Sequence to fold (1316 residues):
Amino acid sequence: MIELSREKLLLLYRQMLSIRLFEDRVYQLFLLGMVPSTLHQYQGQEAVAVGVCAVLNRDDFITSTHRPHGHAIAKGVPMKRIAAELFGKVTGCCRAKGGSMHIGDYSVGMLPAIAIVGSGIPIANGVALAFKLRKTKQVVVSFFGDGATNNGSFHEALNMGAIYNLPVIYVCENNFYGASTHISKVMKLENIADRASAYGIPGVVVDGMDVLEVYRVASEAVNRAREGEGPTLIECKTYRYSGHSRSDPANYRPKEEVEFWKSRDPIFQFKKKLLELDVLSEKEDNRIRSEVEKEIEEAINFAIESPLPSPEIALEDVYA
Amino acid sequence: MIELSREKLLLLYRQMLSIRLFEDRVYQLFLLGMVPSTLHQYQGQEAVAVGVCAVLNRDDFITSTHRPHGHAIAKGVPMKRIAAELFGKVTGCCRAKGGSMHIGDYSVGMLPAIAIVGSGIPIANGVALAFKLRKTKQVVVSFFGDGATNNGSFHEALNMGAIYNLPVIYVCENNFYGASTHISKVMKLENIADRASAYGIPGVVVDGMDVLEVYRVASEAVNRAREGEGPTLIECKTYRYSGHSRSDPANYRPKEEVEFWKSRDPIFQFKKKLLELDVLSEKEDNRIRSEVEKEIEEAINFAIESPLPSPEIALEDVYA
Amino acid sequence: MRRLTIAEAIREALREEMRKDPNVILIGEDIGIPGGWGGPFTVTQGLAEEFGHERVIDTPISETGIVGMAIGAAIMGLRPVAEVQYCDFLFCAMDQIANQAAKLRYMSGGQIKIPLVLRAPTGATGRGAQHAQSLEGLFINISGLKIVAPSTPYDAKGLLKSSIRDDNPVLFFEHKLLYGSKGARKERGGVELLGEVPEEEYTIPLGVADIKREGKDITIVAKLLMLHRTLEAAEELERDGISVEVIDPRTLVPLDKETIINSVKKTNRILIVDECPKTGGWAAEISAIIVEEAMDYLDAPIKRLCTSDVPIPFSPVLEGYVIPTKDRIIQAVREMLG
Amino acid sequence: MRRLTIAEAIREALREEMRKDPNVILIGEDIGIPGGWGGPFTVTQGLAEEFGHERVIDTPISETGIVGMAIGAAIMGLRPVAEVQYCDFLFCAMDQIANQAAKLRYMSGGQIKIPLVLRAPTGATGRGAQHAQSLEGLFINISGLKIVAPSTPYDAKGLLKSSIRDDNPVLFFEHKLLYGSKGARKERGGVELLGEVPEEEYTIPLGVADIKREGKDITIVAKLLMLHRTLEAAEELERDGISVEVIDPRTLVPLDKETIINSVKKTNRILIVDECPKTGGWAAEISAIIVEEAMDYLDAPIKRLCTSDVPIPFSPVLEGYVIPTKDRIIQAVREMLG
Ligand SMILES: Cc1ncc(C[n+]2csc(CCOP(=O)(O)OP(=O)(O)O)c2C)c(N)n1
Ligand SMILES: Cc1ncc(C[n+]2csc(CCOP(=O)(O)OP(=O)(O)O)c2C)c(N)n1
Ligand SMILES: [Mg+2]
Ligand SMILES: [Mg+2]
Fold:
């Protein structure tokens, strides 16, 4: 196991919990009809966003997808700005213009999330190119799903990242489904990481339910990128607990499969480990939980109490 | 060496010669200003088109690229229809609407060539899909260059060909350049065939200057496809003697490199072998050459003497 | 008569054509997965069960690969009905659609045909800029495509059957808010649209507009969701004694100019209501045609009431502000009638 | 004054901006290869030698990857000038252009800027349907992009410099037949275009049209190659006593409506000559604007003289038939003047 300070370990734990409880709470409110549109939620995949983003500095960047809430929380987008954006309020991180699928906050290093599958990956290359030309030692992480790796954008981007030796880490969250479609129907490979060899870059498979493993593998990749050694493709095997989006009952998944993955819950597993290591006690856990819950309630209240945008601002922000 | 009849061997030879001499002749006429537009020529790569197409039946199909003359001749498009198309005459295989980059003849199994790099590959899948659903045992070959393999179309198409197990053979003509750009600048791999593993299909490298080797490898792939065993990626290492297009002096290529490849000329090598095998004599060679030259002159004369299209037909053929 | 949603009507059209012609196949994402959705808006539910996975083909998220494969299959004589989940993703396959499907027949000098239908859900539904565009107007500038945009269950069924039988590439736009509120994918703001659809077989030819409401004071041309808002507006205007003629073009290419022009000759005023962005949008083409062919009949300038020239914003109050509403249609009519 | 081709003028604009601002970089295929072309039409020749391969970046044939990379770099404050070899290939990157570049700033609520220029050679040059489209008109329907289409060396240089300094995504269309006949890539049918370009630095703001010729009987709006054909036609018409005012919009988005409208108010007649296909093309937008804002000034219906609604055919006699020519412009003017 890698060496992490007690504080860092607890931070990872708290962040995973924040994501889980935030998503659960938002879903309740969605069912109450308080959240417009649809939601693509992140429960189950917390170890990926948290394990990866914990390696990054504030001035490193990420690109995200239609499923960005977890990435946003892990990268440090203020929760109340996320909540307000979901509620379509003017105080949202994107002024209510982005919405659930386009959460982003430039000031903490998160581009507006991109909901066209695969399309964020070439853009991440450009961010990395800027870092490289300016020799800043910053890196960029591009998050995407298993489904994205069958898209042409993935191919063009990984090849270009490889040939220009860009400081970018490609993080594939393999949750085994693209919408309702199981990966085995749309790809003949066992491991997506094997596709890295088509570009001459390293590919690594990691247990995406184990936040420390994710952290370890991400650290190595980030170090390589910072040292000018180029990109890495990391495949995190993980699972989304919910349906694809909030209208999806996910009947296409066998119950046992869902049960299997839930038995490997990243937060539960990590808590167990922290208890074993004496980093955490049940009491401490309760304290953290209630702190997180409080933060979430504050964020939600902020969102609920925030004003709607005045309609005319719809015409602003088209051009700089 | 594979077993081929004397007739077949001589046919391969004659076809390669036809392509070479046709291209040379067309170039002369181009310099005289008789051929409109530009030309992307095939000299040097003859063993690929001929070796592959010799395995195909008339009702098998091919897709081609901006550099289609060789494929067309090898697949059996009548030379005079090709020539007339290049000259913009109404007797051309595409009624003067396609031109040099879009040569095609459905009746012999060649779709109109597609000049957007990579874009023919997904279309070849569709042709294969039709064969598969109808259980006809036909196959389709998709020709493309090294440059195309960095394009998203290549990736999406090879993955889909693989998962549907389509009767398609992907033939990459690696002539080491995409336009002026050497492959080493745009890809970190030594062998493009290695990309096959990203899709779970076989990838084979073959000497594209050796028509019998190409024939052998293509035979295996075509057999697999016909038997329902799915696609193969074949990489033929080859070289184009001319510039990318006819306005290109190709100053970006080292002289020694050009010399090296010309010393491995596919027609010269094959002739030597046929002489050694006593399949061919110098006398026979002369006879074949003059037959081919005669055919070419007839084709060119047909093109020259054919009428231009009447302008109004420009408005026809948009819709069926 | 039986009343169906558009989703049901389209499903029925697919089923009937698939039963009739073994060459008809479906290609798309999440369209045939057991326990799955039947496509993003339930349209293909049950079809994989009836026709099998050879003819209802689930794909990776590879729009270029999907459309390319559909083109190749169509050239060989199959009649693929391919789909993208939101029309915004047509741009992911734009080369295949605009450079290949639209041009290959012409490039071949008429040797080949491409009997391909590409279904694409259009319109804004509160999901933000990348799931919201109305692109049917943009594609009319690509010569070689036919463009269909039905607004009622009856039209959708009849036009889809004709599209499938047509020997050319047809882009078939369906508005997400018109699918109807039955089923899993009901959309906030959706129109409660049930329409009469006869049991007997029928088709509607491409290129024939439909006068959805007769009137004499002003002509409004509108399609898809905007047609329904226009009909509501017309209803309300009628109470004030303003008689609106409402024309639904139903197919954008080929366009039934005659019906539109004749209406303008009668009413002498025309308003075009459109969810496509105004600049360079579909409404501009209609306007330009009228001016070329019937300017002398106009008693007032042609007006375009379109979506503002902005990406579609997320928040419902913002989205509502940029897309034409019933009230704004009424206001525009009043202004035009002075 | 010094006379340059458009290719030279553009190269000079790139060089000057690259010298001035280290954030300006070039991204494209075959643009900086030693012994190579300097891009498909020689424009970037010599720039890799001066600025190095860190700033003149040769790419694979990956248009999506190119435009995506340019977008990301632009968001981080570089000022990439990316290019496609023919504008037809914009469709290979359509998602990045239309769904990403045009929308990301808006989606972010104004947090980010995308100072990106995408150069794209447009127009037909006898190469067949996939290397021939005029797409500048289509892109005006994508909100969030600026569209520039210069017709002279002077305009090209001044507008490109402004485009590079602009904080928004700009599509910069260059007509292949206007590059000039010097250099390796001369094109059959090209216009022998040398124009005065001062040595001193200057820029031309986006959104300002230029009256290329004053006249009083009729206004013609035209851009790129069609501008030159129109000027020739105007010359010839003058000999018959017909005075034509010729307006070059120079930028399509933002559009200088005022100059066009004022001209129409003066001449009372307007013809739009355009190489984009007629249906849903750029000319329709101009027509619709005039009708909305100046219909009462019109003495004759607005006429659009555009490329026919067909893919571009290969044979020169066919290509020539579908694209407006000087003679057809003259004929259209005569008809409009009755
Ligand atoms: C290009 C494109 N095609 C289709 C969609 C519709 N869609 C949204 S998410 C999704 C599945 C994505 O799967 P994956 O990449 O594995 O991410 P996950 O949802 O599992 O996080 C699909 C098909 C889209 N947004 N973009
Ligand atoms: C999508 C696309 N981008 C760029 C071009 C311009 N172009 C035509 S051929 C070519 C090089 C192709 O290289 P390769 O695939 O290796 O084929 P080769 O010319 O060597 O036969 C380029 C860049 C194109 N036709 N299509
Ligand atoms: Mg997934
Ligand atoms: Mg090559």
The first helix of chain A runs from residue 6 to 31. The interface with chain B takes residues 150-156, 159, 162-163, 185-189, 194-195, 197-201 of chain A (CB under 8 Å). Chain A has one domain: 6-307. The mean pLDDT of chain A is 97.
